[in-house]
Protein 1
Amino acid sequence: MPETPELRQIIGDLVVAAHRLARLAAQVTGSTESPATWRTLSVLQSSGPMRLGELASQSRVSQPTMTKLVRNLVDAEWVKRIADADDARAWQIAVTPKGVEALQTWRDELSAALVPMFSDLSEAEVAAMRTTVEIIGSRVDLSAAASAALAGSR
């Protein structure tokens, strides 16, 4: 399907709805962790270890903010610093098993908090949601792979 005004509108609406749903879930769970914490752990889990500047960019925060965030995450033992194989003077940040567990626990809390809102969906509606998640996941994975390929060719 070529780009159409309808497709553009649906994608925009989907992004807004996803953000609203994430904010609502965070409020319902009463989580005191910054959304940047979960975003950072998620980036590291899906993309692997990376330098601080790249992590800041991926997590959409400034480098000084990421420095503080990483310090807190190291203290919590959710991330660790590892030597950069390409530059002995540099460090990369990697998620730890404890960080992966914390991220999964948070995701479980989010979904548990939202299940009551969706418990009356029909099987067809649940199937439509599953299909939507699969479509979005595959497009995001393709985009990440393309970005990585472009970065590697520079």
Protein 2
Amino acid sequence: MEATKLGVVSLILCSLLSRHVSKAYEVDLTVEINAGATECFWQRIKRQVSAELEYQVIDGGDLDIDFAIYDPSGRAILMESRKTENVIRVQTEVEGDYKFCFDNSFSRISPKVVFFELVADHDDDEEDDGDDWTVDMDEVKDMVDMTVEDLKGVIDRAKLNLDKSIQLQNLIKIHEARDRNIAEANFNRINNFSAFQLFIMVTVGLTQVLMIRSLFQEKSTSRAVFKQQT
């Protein structure tokens, strides 16, 4: 009996999860924007949909970039200048191809590496009222101690927590990548500066040794100059 109950619950969980997962579009990319260049990306989004975009500059220059969003008609919805990271939520008014642009034209030397993630809801199954289940609801209710509505609530909360966990893991990964790039850049800068200082110290030391040796040579120009001054 317990095995049958577990099988029914598993079937319900799989059905609910497959329905809910199909109602959101999510994409994440890491791209390199060359110096003086602009990169744009298009995504088709339905009307009256909540879309969330998160971006972060993880390497290059001062870790800043210009960003803009355009609706299908080409009208600018949002424009930002010299931002390192941001989370943007947009409520779409019309259906069509929305354009997301990262502009690095203000930089003439440094390319930028940008991570961004786009999450957009889409209700392709609006006509689905949830009643076309392949299992007998009365049988399910008799086998388990909760109703289908309770199971739906559990799945909704589980999916929400999983989505938050994935976004948090992506955010931690990107923060780690940015911090690693900063640490490596500082490491190279310190090494180069230390090598330059070592070169100066060695040069000064050799110059001092040669000057002191020249003072003890009979035909040395330095010794003649030194005697003249004394």
Protein 3
Amino acid sequence: MDKKNVIVRWSTCAPYLLSALRIVAAFLLVQFGTAKLFAFPAAIMPGGGTAALASLPGVAGVLEAFGGALILVGLFTRPVAFLLSGEMAFVYFIGHAPRGFWPVVNNGHPAVLFCFVWLYLSAAGAGPWSLDARLRKRSRAL
């Protein structure tokens, strides 16, 4: 097998790797949301409790848990990813940037990475392993 065939064959995996990126990133985000809302899998709020729903961490927890769940299954991926991208930018600039410039120092690196992953998904879509793809295929069949 020559090098060109290997490259062409590997590039055909891109849509499936997009779906894998979406699934793994959403699974990680859901954990941030459930930790804020339900102290599961661990309590991350100051004092060890849960966030009040009417607070900024509570709203963030709702967006992360339920928006992350929608992205995990690939439903309404583009608009939800765009919303979550904005939320992650807000989280970074409100919660992390005031503690210093470097994301690794201010612990903002997850927010930055999530922001750009969600921004990418808002443009690229959910990929073939998603409810969005299944619904699109079903609507074409009708």
